Amino acid sequence: MYYTVIVPKPVQKQLKQLPSEIYQRVLAKISQLAHEPRPMGVKKLKGFDNEYRIRIGNYRIRYEINDKELIIILVSCRHRRDVYRD
Fold first, then answer.
1. pLDDT tens series, the chain, 86 aa
2. Where are the domains of the chain?
3. What is the rounded distance in angstroms from the CA atom of residue 52 to the CA atom of residue 64?
4. How far apart are the first and last CA of the chain?
C-alpha cells in the first residue's frame, strides 16, 4: 500500500531554491514518504490534525497525511528558521 505524494507549485519552487546537497537529501526523504508516511524521527505538529514534519539537517519538510485516500501533500520545505512562518 503506497501513498501518493503531491508537491504543489509553491513547494516545488522552494525545493528548487535549496542547496544541491540538501536538495538531494530532501528528494530521498520525499520518495521514502510514499512507502512509510510516518518514518522514524517524524514529529506530529501541535495545533494541526494531520500535519507532520521531518528534519533534514537545518531544513524541515512539513506535510499532511490523508490516510483514507492514501495521499501526502507537502506543505513546506524550508530552513528551520522560516518553515513555521506562513
1. 799 999 999 999 999 999 999 999 999 999 999 999 999 999 999 998 999 999 999 999 999 999 999 999 999 999 999 887 76
2. 4-79
3. 6
4. 32
What backbone torsions phi and psi does residue 42 show, to the nearest 5 degrees?
-75, 145
Q: Is the pTM of this model over 0.70?
A: yes
Fold of the domain spanning 4-79? YaeB-like fold (3.30.2310)
Ordered DSSP codes for 13-80:
HHHHTS-HHHHHHHHHHHHHHTT-SS-TT-EEPTT-SSEEEEEETTEEEEEEEETTTTEEEEEEEEET
